[in-house]
Specification:
2 strands, transmembrane helix, mainly alpha, about 5% strand, transport, ABC transporter involved in vitamin B12 uptake, BtuC, ABC_BtuC-like, transmembrane, two-stranded antiparallel sheet
Amino acid sequence: MNEFWVLLTGSLVGITCGLTGVFLILRKTAMIADAISHTVLFGIVVAFMVTQSLNGVWMLIGAALAGLLTTFLVQVLQSGGLQEDAAIGVVFTSLFALGVLLITLFAGNVHLDVEHVLMGEIAFVPWDTWSILGFEMPKAVWMLLFVLFLNIAFLVLFYKEIKLSTFDPVFALSIGLPIMGMHYSYMTLVSLTTVAAFDSVGAVLVVAMLIGPAATAYLMSKSVRGMIIWSMTFGITAAISGYYLAKLWNTSIAGMMAAMIGVLFMFVFLFKPHDGWVWKAVNRMRANGSKVLSR
C-alpha cells in the first residue's frame, strides 16, 4: 500500500507541475519558477512564526504570499531598468537567504529545515496522513489534489484570457484584459503548486517538474492543448519510471524522478520523428550524399 501512495503522490506532482509549467514555458518565465520554488521558504517560515503551526493550510497561504512578493519585487526591479534575469537573481537570493536565517534563528527546534524543504523525501509521504470526511490519505496527496483542482479551475475559467495575454499581450491590454492580474494569479498558482510538492520532491526538484515536462511537451506539440496533455503525460512517466529505477538501484526516489525528466527531454530532442536532432543529421547526410552523386 505504501508503494501505491508513493506512486500516486509522484504522479500527482507530475500532473500538477506539468499542467502549471506549460504557460511558464509559453510566457518565457521559466526561471521565475526557480525563484519562487526557493523564496516560498521565506513565506513558510514567516507563516510558522506567526501561527506557531506547520499546518498545511498556513504553509499554502505563506507560500502564496511569498510567491506574490517575489513576482512583485521582480516586476518593480524590471520597471526600474534592471534586466529580468538580474532582477530574478537579486530577489531569489535575498529572500531565500532571509528564509534560511529565519529558520536558524526562530525555527531551529521544529521539523522545518533547509534540507527537508529543498530535497524532500517522498518515501515518508504515506506516514503523514490527514483524515477528511472519513477518508484518510497522506497529507501530500490531499494538498496536491487541492492545488490540482485550483489549477484546473483556473484554466477552465480563464483559458482564453491566459492564452491571449500569453501570445498577444498588447491586444489583450487593448481590449481591457487585466494583464497584471492574470500574471499575479498565475504566479500564485505556481507558488501553491511548489509548496504542495515540498514533502514529496522538495523545492529544487519541483523546478525540474515544473519546467522539464512542459519543455519536452513544447518539442512534441505546438498547440496549447497538445502541450498540456503531453506535459502531464511526461510528468507521470518520469514519476513512475523514476520510482522503479530508484528501487532497482537503491537511490533517491525524488532525484531519480527528476533525472528521468532529463532523460525524456533528451530522448525527444534527439529522436522525435522528422524534427529530432538525429533525424535532422541523417537528412543532412542524405542531402549531402545526393549532391555528391549528382555531380
